[in-house]
TrEMBL record:
<feature type="domain" description="Glycosyl hydrolase family 95 catalytic">
    <location>
        <begin position="251"/>
        <end position="645"/>
    </location>
</feature>
<dbReference type="InterPro" id="IPR054363">
    <property type="entry name" value="GH95_cat"/>
</dbReference>
<dbReference type="InterPro" id="IPR027414">
    <property type="entry name" value="GH95_N_dom"/>
</dbReference>
<dbReference type="InterPro" id="IPR012341">
    <property type="entry name" value="6hp_glycosidase-like_sf"/>
</dbReference>
<dbReference type="GO" id="GO:0016787">
    <property type="term" value="F:hydrolase activity"/>
</dbReference>
<dbReference type="Pfam" id="PF14498">
    <property type="entry name" value="Glyco_hyd_65N_2"/>
</dbReference>
<feature type="domain" description="Glycosyl hydrolase family 95 N-terminal">
    <location>
        <begin position="9"/>
        <end position="148"/>
    </location>
</feature>
<protein>
    <submittedName>
        <fullName>Glycoside hydrolase family 95 protein</fullName>
    </submittedName>
</protein>
<dbReference type="Pfam" id="PF22124">
    <property type="entry name" value="Glyco_hydro_95_cat"/>
</dbReference>
<dbReference type="InterPro" id="IPR008928">
    <property type="entry name" value="6-hairpin_glycosidase_sf"/>
</dbReference>
<keyword id="KW-0378">Hydrolase</keyword>
Length: 725
């Protein structure tokens, strides 16, 4: 029986190994010792003001003809400097932790220590011979809930987390009001143009008394916590007190209200790799140690658990916003890359399994981010190119979508594919569910309008100038990388996709006369990263942006475009891996799955599983050796397994397109496919594949599997069994 939880028999001494829970807005990180535990409180919208809240894109439209001329004349480094608008590099406002609740008690003997995360409920439990603590972040009541049952202890709060800036000032207070005991934390931000600060408030119920700025607890106690982030004074403490005081019920009652909203989405999909029961009973630390001892093979027990953990963490981090670079969690103030939403690979990869993995709630969170910023994307297009349509930034902190993060080495004003990639997830949701596109159709049309306006003709050929392949470029005459170029293949693919898709979803033919560039296969037989003669660059790079037409777009496909698919496969095998960052291996794995190379998928998964890239919570790191807390691998790994086992397009379903060596049998349940087909169950074993399909509408689907293919007629809501072997 598949295990939907992790447990550990050792405490987490560092916040990076903290067990995690979240409701898409509030996140908790539980770590520490039985008699000295720290529960870091996170909130999705906590970002440190740094003066960029009102930053806008550089005014370049009037200079764009000159910039294009410089690029075409080979003066690409000069063009890159102009594309910054003369600005220094600016970063988004950095995501940061809120504070930590502290639970301290007199030291005593500790026997039978165990900590658990239950993926089906979102509950983190710590227990030992002398007590138990349980907590979760409620989706029903929008609060964090903590139950203490450990005898006498003292509960406090601290803002002294690693890396706290000196300019952030905390105040702590414990007080009694109207017969209730509260613990309050206030943090005042520096005056840098942004939010005023934030306030965390905890109501403690039970035998509790105020003791200075902490609360003394005797016996069982219930704590409920919320976080408020006012844009300007005054603090809204009384309103928060009222919200907490109005919550009724004990811990189990509050948990019962929350669980249906969590368990339903989480349990839609499951994976069973036939792991022995003894392996499923192992603590997470032993699973990780066993994989580390055999880095050249995928440990099925760990892989199965990572699949479930990834879906749990992805869902838990998605609500008011989609997941950040660190999901919803952070225990120090030194977030790499500002802990923001990085949209040239990271966010996109984290969302890879949302639609096909039956988590429309995650896509809805992403849709909220896009809808709040699409006006800013329009302003970017006007300001930078004087064009209609949408130009998305490479990163956002969630406060706005203006494109201001630019540097001569990272000229994101020349990256044109962002809006196409970010909207792809929303269009895919339509393909999976059949729900109307609504305003998304208009946004897709605007992306096509943008490309229609910026496409030009050079020597009789369509061209995108300037263009950028994140985060690299072709060599210049001196052998140095010059990132600004012509016809980056990612931009070419986005233009081709946008123009075709806009016509499809709107029925409008106004783009019929717009001719995008073609792809280019280089002298090595590889899909070129720039579809422009003479453009060659560094093959030892973590990004594989030129494989965008393979994944996620499905434009280059072994069936429809076999020659280009072979060229894409050649490009994939030629590519080095620089620092073996997780997102690089994941994009490679997803592309390999689309190209039906299970061996190559496995090789890229081994780069992650075999390189010590998972913490004991099964949250991941950006680089080997657990370097840089980052959610890319954790959130995207389920999508890699899904794409290896089930691929779909409207009217076509492919079972086991890229089977992974060593996983000769198993069962996958609940996959929601493009084309409104659900694979209720897929089972495979040597020489046999069986699937149960269901569709809400009558349709004909061609099902492919090792051993053949057949057309099946699906009746509405009637399961259909198909078998090969």
């Amino acid at each position: 029986m598949t295990v939907h939880r992790i447990h550990d028999t050792a405490p987490a001494d560092d916040w990076t190994d903290a067990f995690l829970t979240g409701n898409g807005e509030l996140g908790l990180m539980v770590h520490g010792r039985p008699h000295a535990e720290r529960i870091v409180v996170n909130h999705h919208r906590l970002v440190l003001p740094n003066g960029t809240r009102d930053a806008c894109a550089p005014e370049l439209a009037g200079r764009m003809p000159h910039i294009r001329a410089l690029v075409l004349a080979g003066r690409r480094a000069e063009a890159a400097r102009l594309l910054t608008g003369g600005r220094e590099l600016e970063w988004t406002q950095s995501f940061h932790p809120g504070y930590a609740l502290t639970v301290d008690a007199a030291p005593g003997p500790v026997r039978d220590y165990r900590r658990d995360t239950d993926f089906t409920t979102g509950e983190v439990t710590v227990e030992w011979s002398g007590g138990r603590r349980r907590c979760f972040a409620s989706r029903a009541d929008d609060v964090a809930v903590l139950h203490l049952d450990q005898g006498d202890c003292v509960v406090g709060a601290t803002g002294e987390l690693p890396g706290k800036p000196a300019g952030v000032v905390y105040e702590h207070a414990a007080y009694r009001r109207d017969g209730l005991v509260f613990l309050r934390v206030r943090a005042r931000y520096p005056d840098a143009g942004g939010a005023y600060g934030f306030e965390g408030l905890t109501l403690l119920r039970g035998d509790v008394t105020v003791d200075g700025d902490r609360v003394r607890v005797r016996g069982p106690a219930l704590l409920t916590t919320l976080v408020d982030r006012p844009g300007a004074p005054p603090w809204r403490t009384r309103a928060s007190e009222g919200r907490l005081a109005a919550l009724t019920g004990d811990y189990d009652t509050l948990l019962a209200r929350h669980v249906p909203r969590h368990r339903g989405p989480y349990t839609r999909v499951g994976l069973d790799l036939g792991v022995p029961a003894a392996d499923r009973a192992l603590p997470v630390g032993e699973l990780l140690a066993r994989q580390a001892a055999a880095p050249d093979r995928l440990d099925p027990a760990l892989l199965e658990r990572l699949f479930h953990a990834g879906r749990y963490l992805l869902f838990s981090a998605s609500g008011v916003l989609p997941p950040r670079l660190t999901g919803l969690w952070l225990g120090s103030w030194d977030a790499a890359w500002a802990g923001d939403f990085t949209t040239d690979a990271n966010l996109n990869l984290q969302l890879a399994g949302a639609n096909v993995g039956a988590l429309p709630e995650v896509t809805a969170a992403h849709a909220r981010l896009v809808a709040a910023q699409v006006d800013h994307w329009r302003a970017n297009a006007r300001t930078v190119y004087g064009a209609r349509g949408l130009l998305a930034p490479s990163r956002t902190d969630g406060e706005h979508g203006y494109l201001f993060h630019v540097h001569p080495d990272w000229p994101f004003t020349a990256w044109l594919a962002g809006a196409d990639w970010l909207l792809h997830t929303l269009h895919e949701h339509h393909l999976v569910t059949g729900e109307p596109l609504g305003e998304v159709a208009g946004w897709l049309a605007e992306v096509a309008d943008f490309f229609a306006d910026v496409l030009t003709v050079v020597d009789g050929r369509p061209a995108l100038v300037p263009s950028y392949s994140p985060e690299t470029g072709p060599y210049d005459d001196t052998g140095r990388v010059a990132p600004v170029a012509v016809n980056a293949t990612m931009d070419v693919a986005a233009a081709r996709h946008a123009l075709r898709l806009a016509a499809e979803v709107t029925g409008d033919d106004r783009w019929a006369g717009v001719r995008p560039p073609d792809y280019l296969v280089d002298g090595r037989g590889a899909l070129a990263e720039w579809a422009w003669p003479g453009s060659t660059g560094d093959e030892d790079h973590r990004h594989v942006s030129h494989l965008y037409p393979v994944w996620p777009l499905h434009e280059i496909d072994p069936d429809d475009t076999p020659e280009l698919a072979a060229a894409a496969h050649r490009a994939l095998t030629l590519r080095g891996d620089e620092n073996r960052s997780a997102h690089g291996s994941l994009h490679r794995a997803l592309a390999a799955a689309r190209l039906r190379d299970g061996e190559l998928v496995t090789a890229n998964l081994r780069k992650i599983l075999g390189a010590d890239m998972f913490f004991r919570s099964l949250m991941s790191a950006h680089n080997p050796g657990r370097t840089t807390y980052n959610a890319d691998a954790a959130h995207a790994l389920p999508a890699v397994l899904i794409e290896s086992l089930v691929q779909s397009r409207p009217g076509t379903l492919r079972l086991l397109p890229a089977p992974l060596p060593g996983l000769s049998s198993g069962t996958l349940r609940g996959i929601t496919c493009r084309g409104r087909v659900t694979v209720e169950e897929l089972t495979w074993a040597p020489g046999r594949v069986r699937a149960r399909l269901v569709s809400p509408v009558a349709q004909r689907v061609v099902v492919h599997a090792p051993g053949g293919h057949r057309a099946v007629a699906l009746a509405p809501d009637r399961p259909y069994e198909v078998a090969f072997g």
